[in-house]
Amino acid sequence: MTTTVERPATAAPAPRRRTPGVGAGAGALNLLNGTFLLVWGLLTTLPLLWAIVSSFKTNTEFLTSPFGLPDVARFENFARAWTAANIGQYFVNSVIVVVISVPLTMLLGAMAAYVLSRYEFPGNRIIYVAFVGGLIFPVFLALVPLFFVVRNLGSVPVIGEFLGLNSYLSLALVYVAFSMPFTVFFLTAFFRTQPTSIAEAAIVDGCSHFGLFFRVMLPMAKPGLISIGLFNVLGHWNQYVLPVVLMNEPDRKVLAQGLAALAISQGYRGDWTALFAGLVIALLPVLIVYILFQKQVQAGLTAGVLK
Amino acid sequence: MTKAAARGRVSKPGPALQHGKYLFIVVFLVFPVGIYGLFTLSPYLQAIWISLTDWTGLTGSQKFIGLDNYAWLFSDDQTLVALKNNALLLLVVPVITVLLGLFFASMLNVGRRGKSGIEGVRGSKVYRVVYFFPQVLSVAIIGVLFKYVFAPTEAGGILNSALRAVGLGNLAVPWLGDPDFAFWCVVVVMIWSFVGFYVVLFSAAMQSIPKDIYEAALLDGASRYTTFRRVTLPLVWDTVQVGWVYMAIQAMDAFAYVHIMLGISGGPSRSGDVLGVAMYRTAFNDYRFGRASAIGVVLLIVTLIVSLVFLRFARRERVELA
């Protein structure tokens, strides 16, 4: 990474100008611009690099030589973070919630978007507006009532056992609900662009409504589903406010929330390197997914604004 | 979109498919609409009602008290601090983020006048990947990370160590512990985490500008600044205006940053308080649900006004440029 980042500094001596009137100043300008780019590149990478390097140090090394490398890579920091600091439990909690919430978001979002984009019926427009209107509302406004809705669900007979506060399923369903506006908005636009001729051909072949959706339309919508899927994976994995309100039992915290609680409570005062190891455990999976799928992730995350 | 246009896009299934159509529609909509209604729509509507009551955690009762909670909100010093900070976030964060985003995006896409015409500066591809890093990380991770970047040296704060290392030790202050700096540290971190997103967003828009427009500008002897002002900016203005609104809405939600970096009371002397944190505290620490919901409603109203004003303003601006 470092070698490539440094490259623009050498690129700075300006490429030859063909324009009259913009002469000697251009080289200096290029150098200045190149420096800005490099500085921002360093600003984004160095804090992360610092966290990663620190996670391998002893606490003494962390304090006494903040810029140095560790003598030995202390993998035991990660063991301590995983077990003693409970990061392992938080990690598992996050995985459980996201494994339930993302597929469900995709399925329900696609079903709603499909029906809203391709079927005419009374109330279509109202339901669409109700979904998309959710994009404007700040999550905060919903927090208080949401807390009580979820808490009360816990005392409903039969299903209450699986719902309520501190339940994985509840949190996942809340994620699904809050992801609906954008997912429906995005996929409705996507289904509208799909050609009708294929759908008609499938009908002629005797396909039912359900078959048409699951066997024809859903596979055709794959590129759209991937973009919005990545968007939701990152969004759900990184969610902070909702679990803070809905998951208050120590063993049920999700990763983002658990890490923050660890730092806020200073419960780990004195053991910074375990905290940093926890930080690295939390950031590496996301960073790896991003580096592997940069194009799709960037497209997925910016799609919302561009549409 | 008009109703007719909407209809034109909806496919009209043949008579064979009319059979069972409504059953299908109901089956497909019942779960999405149900879950959304239960967990999202109904809480929003309830919140508006709760904001007009005196509901606390102690009494189960909710008595209608009209706009009293709103009157409290605008007379309470602490909420006013939060309101002021939200206003600052709204002004400062989008302006700096959008300016930096535009600058970097133009450098990365049309910043160089190379042999094959206008292109991005060298290393553009790497920068575009690296700048986006903060965007994929959880706000919680960013918050914790910078809590330690800004920490005092004794607690491993790297910023103060770095300042000392380059001989600027007298600039080292307890950043997050100082009422003058705490809030601005949050602002810096927010800008840090947002810029990459806008670089990618504006890059996508700049990529779609035909390169021969730049060739023409080059032949006319247009300076780099003129090219940016007269060619690039007008052609990406649509994206900038949408990004601007999006950014303003995002900047309103500083909850996780403040909650993690400064704590639930909003930092030293509560100087870094924001509406999100004030709302959370009022609800889940003080159990003043009516007041908390009123703060939420104010947040909603501000968000709506900001979106409308920005869109209005931006539209007029575009006409002038065109």
Number of strand elements of chain A: 0
Indicate the structural class of chain B.
mainly alpha
Give the quaternary arrangement of the chains: heterodimer
For the report, how would you describe the main beta sheet of chain A? none
Strand order of the largest sheet of chain B: 1-2
Report the count of strand segments of chain B.
2
Query: N-to-C SSE series of chain A?
Result: HHHHHHHHHHHHHHH
The CATH topology annotation of the largest domain in chain A reads as MetI-like fold
What general form of chain B does the structure show?
globular
User: Helix share of residues of chain B?
Assistant: over 70%
CATH structural architecture of the largest domain in chain A: Orthogonal Bundle
**Beta-strand share of residues of chain A:** under 5%
Largest interface (CB within 8 Å) is between: A-B, 115 and 117 residues
3D structure, described in words:
The complex is a heterodimer of chains A (307) and B (322). By secondary structure, chain A is mainly α. Chain A has 15 helices and no strands. Chain A folds into two domains: 2-12 and 25-80, no CATH class; 86-306, MetI-like (MetI-like fold), CATH 1.10.3720.10. Helix content of chain A is 74%, strand content 0%. The relative contact order of chain A is 0.13. Chain B has helices spanning 3-9, 15-18, 21-50, 68-73, 77-110, 124-131, 133-136, 139-149, 158-165, 182-207, 211-219, 224-252, 255-261, 275-284, 289-321, and strands at residues 112-114, 117-119. Chain B has a two-stranded antiparallel ribbon with strand order 1-2. By secondary structure, chain B is mainly alpha-helical. Chain B folds into two domains: 12-50, no CATH class; 68-321, MetI-like (MetI-like fold, Orthogonal Bundle), CATH 1.10.3720.10. The chains are: A mainly alpha (307), B mainly alpha (322).
